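From the methods appendix. Each design record in this collection lists the tokenized structure first, followed by the designed amino acid sequence. Records were kept in a plain field format so they could be parsed without special tools. The example shown here is representative of the layout used throughout.

RECORD:
FOLD TOKENS (182 positions):
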């Protein structure tokens, strides 16, 4: 009976990195496919538009006195053009939303996997000790300075509180931010 050896922390981390890279490459490939489809739709729309306007010219060339027929062909060409433009805009928005979803999901999954790998079995300590030497000892927090110097120092992202928000009905700004980070 063979015993399965446990993977090292570094192996799990780098396997996770390779999996995330493969996921991101798949996202890039699907984005490229969407761009390619959109470009084909754009080219096909331009081709169809030229055919519509050629029909307008053909009707005028066959019977220049038939203004109603030429007008109908021109109105149809304009309507088809507007329909194609709306369809292209809808396709672009849907593709952009899908791209955003796929990218956010891939990054969220990758960050979650990395966090899990670092938290599991003390991997963080093992990784940091192998790369940067021993972990530094915990340092006592310094009390915040008083006076004007405290205002000019940048706030920590982790301890930042949201700004107070005041609603305004005046145009152009519907949101006014007041207050400071406390």
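DESIGN:
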């Amino acid at each position: 009976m063979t015993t399965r050896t446990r993977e090292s922390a570094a192996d799990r981390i780098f396997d996770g990195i390779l999996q995330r890279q493969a996921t991101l490459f798949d996202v890039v490939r699907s984005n490229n496919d969407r761009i390619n489809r959109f470009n084909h739709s754009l080219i096909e729309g331009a081709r169809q538009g030229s055919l519509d306007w050629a029909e307008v010219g053909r009707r005028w060339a066959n019977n220049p006195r038939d203004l109603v027929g030429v007008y109908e062909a021109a109105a149809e060409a304009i309507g088809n053009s507007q329909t194609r433009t709306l369809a292209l805009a809808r396709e672009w928005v849907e593709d952009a939303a899908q791209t955003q979803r796929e990218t956010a999901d891939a990054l969220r999954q990758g960050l979650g996997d990395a966090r899990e790998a670092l938290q599991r079995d003390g991997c963080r300590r093992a990784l940091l000790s192998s790369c940067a030497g021993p972990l530094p000892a915990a340092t006592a927090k310094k009390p915040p300075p008083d006076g004007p110097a405290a205002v000019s120092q940048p706030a920590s992202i982790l301890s930042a509180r949201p700004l107070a928000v005041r609603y305004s009905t005046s145009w152009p700004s519907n949101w006014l931010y007041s207050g400071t980070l406390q």
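APPENDIX NOTE: The CA atoms of residues 16 and 113 lie 7 Å apart.
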